[in-house]
Known about the structure:
- The protein folds into two domains: 2-51 and 381-438, Urease, subunit C, domain 1 (Roll), CATH 2.30.40.10; 53-373, TIM Barrel (Alpha-Beta Barrel), CATH 3.20.20.140.
- Helices cover 37% and strands 19% of the residues.
- The chain contains 14 helices and 16 strands.
- The strands form three sheets. The protein has a seven-stranded mixed beta sheet with strand order 3-2-1-4-14-15-16, covered by helices on one side. Strands 5, 6, 7, 8 and 9 form a five-stranded parallel beta sheet that branches. It has a four-stranded parallel beta sheet with strand order 10-11-12-13.
- A hairpin with a 2-residue loop joins strand 1 and strand 2 (14-23).
- 52% of the residues are buried.
- The chain binds zinc ion.
Amino acid sequence: MSNLFFASALLPQGWADNVLIRLDGRGRIVAVETGAPCPPGAERFDGAAVAGIANLHSHAHQRAIAGMGESSGEGTDSFWSWRDVMYRALDRMTPDDFQAVAAQLYMETLKAGFTAVAEFHYLHHDRDGSRYADPAEMSHRAVAAAREAGLPITLLPVLYNASGFGGTPPTAGQRRFVHDGDGFARLTERLRSAYGDADDVRLGIAPHSLRAVPDGLLADTIAAHPEGPIHIHIAEQRKEVEDCLAFSGRRPVEWLLERHAPDGRWCLIHATHMTEAEVAAVAASGAVAGLCPTTEANLGDGFFAAESYLGQGGRWGIGSDSHISVSPVEDLRWLEYGARLTSGRRTVLAGGPRRSTARRLVEDAQAGGAQASGFESGRIAPGLRADLVVLDTHHPLLAARSGDARLDGWIFAGNANLVRDVIVAGRVVVRDRRHPQEDAIAERFTHTIRRLLG
Ligand code: ZN
């Protein structure tokens, strides 16, 4: 594996020019040298390198219906009417279809500048709800798609057991998701034996939500999985908060904090509806808040208490969730813009005077993404994976900028994709905005979508 040389790079201590990154045989960073000439044999990139961001929340199959729920229905449209559209599209999806959709999504994910994905994967069973011969069939397809694209994946098999608080039986539309405790244990055991040693896969679990997993089952499942990330949908919808209050007398975040003491292993997806006390407690817990601003906007969920949470040092990262948009730029921009629109001020999340807003957003998302995905990355430093994104500093938007102004240009100016190259574990997977399998993956996706939606 050749060493990598960049005209400039954002290191933990700040921007540096002429940066040589020495790698070991697995694509880990052994040493970082600055102000050095490019040695013979090193691969040279004439751009600005930054550590990649992990996309910490994905439902890959939902890429198939992105943009399909934008015509108004008979009454008031909400998250719940969108979910009906999504369930109907799922009814027809075979393992081959799922892999075709996921491969396209994961390729787009890389090209947008993400260098890992956490797949919150709940499409487990056959179309009639029966088990596949291998209960991990669909999980294998997620990994196969990620490997086709060259994207590291954190597989988070979802435990979905009930349709509402109090163990309400699942609906017919949920038949492809449902597990009891034993079935879920068999699935995770199968995944451990298949991928436990893989360098491009991390394994965790995803109890779907407090409404879909009764509390005793949640406690047993956590106890049975003492390692790896734990992701959960926590407080996306007001109705969810109201239902949780009616059932338990507690709000969802309050309930989770009280009963399950989330720590650094946890990622709280859509921690949208929180009281100030909940914001402070989650910020102090070490858990990552998994924010999906474009999906949350698209579904009319609400806006996260970003200014307060970030001000208290809370950890967070971003995910493209429903994949209505697959772009770290758009999700980071919308997080800041939501904070501006609700506060009436600018540079709300910059973190203090005379600081680059984009630098703060990017560095927080790098760190939170690494923590929630379990991949040792998120900074350019010895010991970590060389998962990197190279910005096109010759693009007119960036050509006259240096340092943090490049990040501000990347995140806030225009809609051109300024990510030129993407490197995963030291290997170039996107070069000059092209993925080597791009045409074949896109053709298979198009064919699949025509049939699924036809
Ligand atoms: Zn989700």
